[in-house]
Amino acid sequence: MSIFSFIKLAGESIFGGKNEEEELVAKKAAAEANELAEEAAMARRLEETIRDLSLDVEGLTVFVDDDRVSVSGEAHDQATKEKVVLVLGNSTGVASVEDNMTVEHTEPEAQFHTVVSGDSLSKIAKHYYGDPMKYTLIFEANQPMLKDPNLIYPGQVLRIPRLD
């Protein structure tokens, strides 16, 4: 028995199909089209989630590019704008959010806090306000995304509103 070596992309296609290089180009184009369709579907789901949470943004547009999301539209107020950014950023698969929104009624911006292991809303409130009992301010500032003040997770980003 003998083994003969050949250059696999050289020669003629005897099966009447595309050569391997053409097939690779076609597969790459199909994969790119599939990725674009998945990104568009994710953008629609994110927009739907924002609307389901009753966050008031006129002309809301979400665009997904790999793990980056950009958002535009006019939010009713600063809190709504920040909540939209948090909904997007706290979604699986999102690494960064480009905020291109405007605000109808301006107000001071809140701070943001990334939850670490061992955090609780009362611990976070003590850090920012000096009073652990002010955890309810943080909980309320993050509704409707938070349903229970005891259910936060490492990596989650929360709004920390300024005290008046």
Automatic annotation (TrEMBL):
Residue ranges annotated for the LysM domain, each copy included: 111-160
- Write down the species: Microcosmobacter mediterraneus
- Quote the PROSITE patterns the UniProt record gives: BON, LYSM
Domain BON residues, every copy: 37-105
Signal sequence annotation: none
Q: Keywords on this record?
A: Coiled coil
Q: Which SUPFAM superfamilies match?
A: LysM domain
> Which residues are in coiled coils?
19-56
Is Coiled coil there in the keyword field?
yes
- Per the record, the domain of life is Bacteria
| InterPro entries attached to this UniProt entry | Bact_Kbp (IPR052196), BON_dom (IPR007055), LysM (IPR018392), LysM_dom_sf (IPR036779)
Q: What is this protein called?
A: Peptidoglycan-binding protein LysM
Cite the Pfam families for this sequence: BON (PF04972), LysM (PF01476)
